[in-house]
Amino acid sequence: MTIAQIKALFQTGKIPTQADFENLISKIPNDDLIGGGDSTLRLYNPSAPHVCGYRFVTIDDNYTYIFLGVYDASGGDIVPFLIIQCNQGRPLEGGAAINWAFLTDAQMIHIYNEIGDLHSPDDTSLVNAIPSDIQWNRMNSNPTVRVICTKGQNSDITFQCFPAKYNNKFYIGYVIKEEHSYNANSYWRGVIKSGIAYNDIAWDNSDEELASVLKDSTRFTYTKM
């Protein structure tokens, strides 16, 4: 039944039946209804329902934090492992820094010792429990090093590709090539020959397309390291 239909059953002068009450109760979210399936939404505490492993926190309209957690079976707790931070309360005005940090084992233990389960403390206590030695990394839209793995005739080849931007488009600008076989290892530095604006080394090409170009010397001059 829809919400509107249930409301109609409880209008003044109506006498709801047992089935009507059952329909009403079944509309109330609870763990019995989702048990055995997706356990992401936790409803066992009606005063504090939450999405398991996720916390969204704002502090004084100045900072925003997103915490993602993992399950620890020894105590049945959720422990933060990734934190995303926005350093201002009005990102639409521009200039906001979005930072992220993966926690080390020691930092995860520190937070757990401070506040216990991810969903237990209030927002301020959770933020105050962030370790002082956390390594924040600036998030931006530029690509990072791309690793492409392929097969040679008798070897495995790994390319570490470094991006370069030209005319608002990213290309592969520099390459480190590793070639490993059963009894030999070699390392090569690849420098682009002439110009960068070639579609066959565009950053948004597939790994397979780029590997076919990187394996020969059409675009890059390789020097053994």
How many DSSP H or I helices?
A: 6
Q: What is the CA-based Rg, rounded?
A: 27 Å
What's the multimeric state?
A: single chain
Instruction: Write the element-wise H/E pattern from the N-terminal end onward.
Output: HHHEEEEEEHHEEEEEHE
Largest sheet: 5 strands, antiparallel
The helix content, as a percent range, equals 10-25%
Describe the structure.
By secondary structure, the chain is of the alpha+beta class. The chain contains six helices and twelve strands. The protein has helices at 3-9, 18-26, 31-34, 105-115, 123-128, 207-214, and strands at residues 41-42, 50-51, 54-59, 63-72, 77-86, 98-102, 137-138, 146-151, 156-166, 169-180, 185-192, 220-224. A five-stranded antiparallel sheet has the order 3-4-5-6-7. The chain has a five-stranded antiparallel sheet with strand order 8-9-10-11-12, with helices on one face.
List keywords for this structure.
about 220 residues, elongated, alpha+beta, single chain, 6 helices, 5-stranded antiparallel β-sheet
In short:
The protein is α+β, with helices and mostly antiparallel strands and 225 residues long. The protein has six helices and twelve strands.
